[in-house]
Design goal:
By secondary structure, the chain is mainly alpha-helical. The chain folds into two domains: about 180 residues, Cytochrome c-like domain (Cytochrome Bc1 Complex, Chain D, domain 2, Orthogonal Bundle), CATH 1.10.760.10; about 190 residues, Cytochrome c-like domain (Cytochrome Bc1 Complex, Chain D, domain 2, Orthogonal Bundle), CATH 1.10.760. Helices cover about 35% and strands about 5% of the residues. Helix 1 packs across helix 6 and helix 4 packs across helix 6. The termini are far apart.
Length: about 375
């Protein structure tokens, strides 16, 4: 009898854990649902003109692909006048970014925004509402007051975070950002269903060019791509995000057209990682976080300031470090010599010059492979644009 009683206690314990897990899942789902509503709500900008989705459109891999008068290099603020100085990065696969930290090699790694200034996804979600050239609320209290206008939000926040959640402005604001982060952690943002992923599951056969591009990409002999754009140790690993989440200065030039449009001027120097309040070493000036290559074919323009419009231009830019050819020193988009680096010091020359020059065939093959990193639901965009 005692053994039977103990057995039932054991089963009850398992059931209790399962119920607790189910309750946690339900809670997370409700938070994600609330986060989705917040993500698409234009009322979360001071002028009621802009939502998170405005600059991170799910129809385009969560980037801002509006022209904005600067070929989509930067986003307009909620006042529809202010213009930023950096390109809105994709939120695709952003949930997999590690918190900002110093790794075992002593390098900065992870964090959100291209300078890693926010520790994690929830912290990042709290930035735009208070940014004067984005959603432009003067303080957290005014954001929470806007939430209180909606009885749906009031009910949802109290159910998820407690009846007195709105009594504390900081806690209420944190609840908002955590809800948005919960939504951004959904599989919808990180589906891993591209042709490359399907290839790994034996559900897709790569074309000849795609396969050559893959070999080149993961090769340490023919390219240096995977030095920064490979997270897992072995090629062919599942859930590869194609970024090391570290920071490098690759000598990106100023986007002069953007600077003329936003009025900041070419005299201003974007110090990148050095503008992160947790970083104070001058050797980190001009470094920016290595972006994911997921959906790279549809997330133009490229670089932290949107200075390049075409993917092949990016590859040519990298290739200029590995050839003496005079033609390789010309930006094909402008017909002029590549612009001077915005920060000439601290360029990762060793890494950039560690590969042989690429011919046209290999460049095209690399691009073909990069196209295979496009999420399934966006593959039709590739056909439209080509």
């Amino acid at each position: 009898m005692m053994k039977i009683f103990i057995f039932f206690l054991f089963i009850a314990g398992l059931t209790g854990k399962a119920l607790a897990a189910d309750e946690a899942d339900i809670q997370n789902t409700k938070m994600a649902d609330l986060g989705a509503a917040l993500f698409f709500d234009v009322n979360l900008s001071n002028d009621r003109t802009q939502s998170c989705a405005t600059c991170h459109d799910p129809a385009r891999a969560f980037i801002d692909w509006r022209d904005n008068g600067v070929a989509a290099a930067a986003s307009l603020g909620g006042d529809l006048i202010s213009l930023g100085d950096r390109n809105a990065p994709t939120l695709s696969y952003a949930a997999l970014t590690p918190d900002f930290h110093i790794n075992e090699e002593g390098e900065y790694e992870g964090g959100l925004f291209v300078d890693g200034r926010e520790l994690n996804l929830a912290d990042q979600a709290g930035g735009p509402p208070l940014n004067p050239i984005e959603m432009a609320f003067p303080n957290k209290a005014t954001v929470i007051q806007r939430l209180l206008e909606s009885q749906i939000y009031v009910t949802a926040f109290k159910e998820l975070f407690g009846e007195i959640i709105f009594d504390n402005i900081d806690l209420a604001y944190q609840a908002m950002t955590e809800s948005i982060a919960a939504y951004e952690q959904a599989d919808f943002f990180s589906p891993f269903d591209s042709k490359y992923d399907r290839y790994l599951r034996d559900e897709y056969e790569l074309t000849r060019d795609e396969e050559l591009g893959m070999v080149l990409f993961f090769s340490e002999q023919f390219t240096n791509c995977n030095q920064c754009h490979q997270l897992n140790n072995l090629p062919g690993s599942t859930r590869e995000t194609f970024t090391s989440y570290t920071y490098d200065n690759i000598g990106v030039p100023i986007n002069r057209k953007l600077r003329e449009a936003n009025g900041i001027g070419i005299q201003y120097i974007d110090q990148g990682l050095l503008e992160n309040p947790l970083v104070n070493n001058l050797t980190d000036a001009g470094k920016f976080k290595v972006p994911t290559l997921r959906n790279i074919a549809i997330t133009a323009p490229y670089m932290h300031n949107g200075v390049f419009q075409e993917l092949k231009t990016v590859i040519r830019f990298y290739d200029k470090y590995n050839t003496r050819s005079s033609s390789a020193q010309i930006n094909p988009e402008t017909g002029e010599i590549w612009g001077e680096p915005e920060v000439a010091e601290n360029i990762s020359i060793t890494e950039l010059e560690s590969a042989p020059a690429l011919d046209e065939r290999r460049m095209d093959a690399l691009i073909a492979f990069l196209y295979t990193l496009t999420d399934s639901r966006y593959e039709a965009l590739l056909e439209i644009e080509n």
